[in-house]
Amino acid sequence: MNVFRGQPKRDPKHYRRDIGRIAQGSIFFEDEEDGYRNADVELDKKQLLDNIREMQIRNQIVPSTSLALGHGVVNLDIEMETGTGKTYVYIKTMFELNKQYGWSKFIIVVPSIAIREGVAKSFSMLEDHFMEHYGKKARWFVYNSSNLNQLDQFSQDSGISVMIINIQAFATSMKEGGKSKESRIIYSKRDEFGSRRPIDVIAANRPIIIMDEPQKMEGAATQSALAKFKPLFVLNYSATHKTKHDTIYALDAYDAYKEQLVKRIQVQGFEVRNLKGTSKYMYIDGIVLSPNHAPEVRIELECKRKDGSIRREIRKFGVNDSLAAASGLAQYNDFVITDINPRGRGSVTFLNGDTLYCGEVVGDTNEEAMQRVQIRQTIIAHLQKENELFNRGIKCLSLFFIDEVSHYRLYDDEGNEVKGKFQKIFEEEYARIINDFITVFDTPYDNYLRSFKPCETHKGYFSIDKKGRTVNSETKRGSDISDDISAYDLILKNKERLLSFEEPTRFIFSHSALREGWDNPNVFQICTLRHSNSTTAKRQEVGRGLRICVDMNGIRQDKELLGDDVHEVNQLTVIANESYTDFTTALQRETREALRNRVTAASQDYFIGKVVVDSNGEKHTIDLMDTTLILGYLYQSGYITRNGNLTPKYHADAKADELMILPEDSPIKKIEIGMQKLIAGIFNPKVLEEMVEEVSPTTAANELNNNFTDKRFQKLWNEINHKYVYTVHYDSEELIEKAIANLKKNLTVTKLQYVMVTGDQDKENVTEFGNTKSTTRELTDISTSSVPYDVVGDIAKGARLTRRTVVKILKGIGIKALLFKNNPEEFIRNVIKTIRAEKATMIVDHITYNPTKADPYDSTIFVPEHRLNVNKAVELSKHITPYVAYDSDEEKKFAQGLEGAREVLIFAKLPRKLKIPTPVGYYAPDWAIVFEEGAVRHVFFVAETKGSLDKMELRGVELAKTECAKRLFNSISTNTTRYGVVDKFDKLYDIINGID
Fold first, then answer.
1. Higher model confidence: residue 100 or residue 958?
2. 44, 57, 550, 922: least surrounded by Cβ within 10 Å?
3. Would strands 282-290 and 293-304 be described as parallel, antiparallel, or unpaired?
4. Three-class SS of residue 271?
5. Rounded to an integer, what distance in angstroms lies between the CA atom of residue 276 and that of residue 334?
């Protein structure tokens, strides 16, 4: 929270509490009068505004010209997209504000009971997590007007204290002068509360207010109540702020996707087409690829059975197959297949000239037939994803939105439940489809599928009427969104049970779109079975499944844990009730409208005044001359148009890590990294198209082929498939020397400041002061904070060193140690950062690897966990599987280069499961290549492909990982096998012949 930079850390202010009238005969202890409130903000308005503007410039937000009006000294907006961990962030913010400034009293205000329950659940689940990081716990409670003693405890506690209150409580109990019982309690002197007004007890603590979804709480009653809390300041957290204050951080839908903080979205759409010559039904289900035969297409059509009845069935067809012959019905005459195209959307062409695409429905169809197709495709998508996630311990859930509860559940005249049409369709389709997923190998997943009956796998979560029957959830006028409290108990209050494999429920049917707070992180499929004219926004529907998933132990499967696999695991599939194009067009339009204002062109106004860090680690403000040189670089490189918009060439080079490098003598060379970050911040509206992709209609069998069993590849595989552990031995004295040298040269600590304000008392209104003047002065003594510091202990903990080693470093830096007096917190942070940086540089030189006793990796790691998208794969004969999936154009070109090279016999794109441990995280090499013996110096090569080998691009963690991998492979392999990093295939031949 750099907004308060310069604010000294204070202990909570001690004050004498109003304990009220003491009942006769009660025992009173003097310390019961003790209360602790938040210390005042000691910065003046100019300092606060300067800090805010600095944060805004750094975060590429339009700077504020003045402090926004509102409750408290500042009102700060934090924009965070749905599903990005907003609750976690503001809980962590409380701990940081307490750690850095000593503030300890907080009130969280939420707009619904659902969110209130979610926040309370988060506090409960994260208690141990924050205890581990901060060494303390927050005492939290949900406001209840019938339990006012909690307010006394809130005031008496000197630690972090949090009150959670929802807007429903505001509407009833926080309206002064209101006629409700709750209103009389909060605003009146209560005998049972020592003749005190509860609102006064709360306000005496000067709490910091955190508003969760403030745009839903802008009513007069709510705002009036907030003022009576007398907040120190207010923090507003939302994805879509209605009333703007001072925005200090923005993470919108595009940012969240780019940073891989939410699931990737896939959409499977359906489109009804009418063809001349037939009114009968056909649904193009998908295309199947196999190395053993030509492509086949799956078509659902009407078939005549032996008893003369007609039933819809899914059949496989190849080129020259006749639908009429297969179905026994003349209505399909002239529907003879002449071509099957697995690429793009996937299509099938018939002899009569008609071409149909996967997902299209033709002929005589109705809404129920379409809904059956949607339910079937949702079950298939669910089982495919569930099969991928099962061994990871991740429960897979699917969510159906329906428009009428009666379509799922009915009641007869006696009040007994009767299955609605959706229940019947679901159980019929599930029972049929599941047989395609149960194998003959009796795997744990096979046993899991067998353990539940179709009727046990789904449940409907709807509102309950007074007779105990499910009813349609109440929705607000003009909305399709419900906030019914009686619904969704298993989704909300029993999340842990729903995420357990012991709970059979995996498919959830719900009326209306669930509001914020009802999210479950493990929803991987969403199906909309409502009428196509539903008013629910696409983002509202999709938002219920965007959160990053967790495993059965509650561990978040995010980028930090999964690395590049995060979007392979976290993928949301939407089975829409309209075409892919219509759905994605609407979704992209809504997303574009919700994005924060972004710069879309390079200009002088954009660059001038921006602050970047130069190559020496110092702040640099970009001026007119810098801007002129930056724009010149962009023009000369072909990266911007005459209007300043970024060109396709820029985006292609950026994606391939091949951006033009400034010459060494360029005046702006020292700010090159910062410059590139600013350029990357220029928004290209076309990137919204990348956020959603169409479900691949083609299923490809991509199993290991004869190249894998070839003895030459097996020889390479047996060299690299071992599992390893590492040890790092380095000389502590060497680390001490390097840390001292770095700190002596680079350690800087800014001085703390305080503000002295003077004013004259108004002669008529003695409670008011005017003619105020402020003076800013530097604090020059360590006693500026009344909080004691364990400098050695804090640095030892942060840098993971012994206290003895830290003492030697601090003694070694001499007079620099006195900088502690300037700002103790910053001194500790900067010393830790420097020591850790020096440790990182010593890793590679002192690391050794040894094989573990565990079994080596076997061929099962090549079994694909995810359905292959043939639109992002290339078919190659020298690879160990028929298709090679690629993540970038450079990777595709590299694979094609290997295929075309005469010297290359066999190659494999290595799965990410083959991991090498390093001190900076796991590392996975990209390729294993077998060359023809005699054609090159080294027969085997383990390669890592990088788009650029320039030191500016390949640095830090990635550089450390690749260097560790090089030491491993080049030390344990034979003289015929080597490891290297290449940027293009063209350089591979030279490298393989030149490695020593």
1. 100
2. 922
3. antiparallel
4. strand
5. 12
Backbone φ/ψ region at 103: left (φ over 0), alpha (ψ -120 to 50), beta: beta
More confident residue, 686 or 266: 266
CA 40 from centroid of its chain's CA atoms: 35
Contact present, 394 and 554 (Cβ < 8 Å): no
- Residue 805 tokens read as 């080693």
Which pLDDT value is given to residue 216? 86
For 16-54, how does the pLDDT look when each residue is reduced to its tens digit (9 = 90+)?
555 555 544 444 444 455 678 899 999 999 999 999 988
Distance CA 356, CA 360 (A): 7
The percentage of the chain sitting over the pLDDT mark of 70, rounded to a whole number, equals 81
- Contacts of residue 367, defined as CB under 8 A and 6 or more positions apart, other chains included, come to 531
DSSP state for residue 141 in the 8-state scheme: E
Partners of residue 847 on adjacent β-strands: 728
What confidence score (pLDDT) does residue 28 get? Answer: 42
Confidence of residue 804 (pLDDT cuts 50, 70, 90): very high
- What b-and-e string marks burial along 304-341, b requiring 16 or more CB atoms within 10 Å of the CB? eeeeeeeeeeebebeeebbbeebbebebbeebbbeebb
Please give the pLDDT value at position 770.
Answer: 53
Per DSSP, helices labelled H in 72-126 are: 86-101, 113-125
| Residue 634 CA, distance from chain mean position | 32
Is the per-residue pLDDT at 823 higher than 90? no
For residue 601, CA distances in Å to 606, 627, 636 come to: 8, 14, 16
Burial class (CB in 10 A: 0-12, 13-18, 19+), 988: buried
Backbone dihedral angles phi then psi of residue 75, each to the nearest 5 degrees: -125, 110
In the 8-state DSSP scheme, what is residue 418? E
Using a pLDDT cut of 90, give the percent of the chain over it: 33
Paired with 461 in beta bridges are 510
Query: Is pLDDT larger for residue 124 or for residue 13?
Result: 124
**pLDDT at res. 983:** 64
> Does residue 760 contact residue 771 with C-beta atoms inside 8 Å?
yes
Residues 6+ apart with CB under 8 A from 551: 392, 393, 394, 557
Q: What is the pLDDT of residue 600?
A: 85
Give per-residue pLDDT as tens, 892-902.
Answer: 888 998 999 88
Of the spans 442-446, 493-497, 590-594, which averages the highest pLDDT?
442-446
939: which residues sit within 8 A by CB, 6+ positions away?
930, 931, 933, 976, 977
**Distance between start and end Cα atoms, the chain:** 51
> Rounded to an integer, what distance in angstroms lies between the CA atom of residue 612 and that of residue 890?
30
Can you tell me which residue has the tokens 């047989």? 435
Report d(CA 566, CA 571) in Å as an integer. Answer: 9
CA distances from 548 to 428, 554, 868 (A): 31, 11, 22
Average pLDDT over residues 603-629: 87
Does the CA dihedral 217-218-222-228 come out positive or negative?
positive
> Could you read off the pLDDT of 378-423 as tens digits, one per residue?
999 999 999 999 999 999 999 998 888 888 988 888 888 899 999 9
Structure tokens at 2: 């750099």
Query: How far apart (Å, rounded) are the C-alpha atoms in residues 232 and 103?
Result: 10
DSSP 781: S
Number of other CB atoms surrounding residue 748 within 10 Å: 12
Sequence-distant (6+) residues with CB within 8 A of 931 are 903, 904, 905, 938, 939, 940, 941, 992
Q: Which residues contact 719 (CB under 8 A, 6 or more apart)?
A: 940, 972, 973, 974, 977
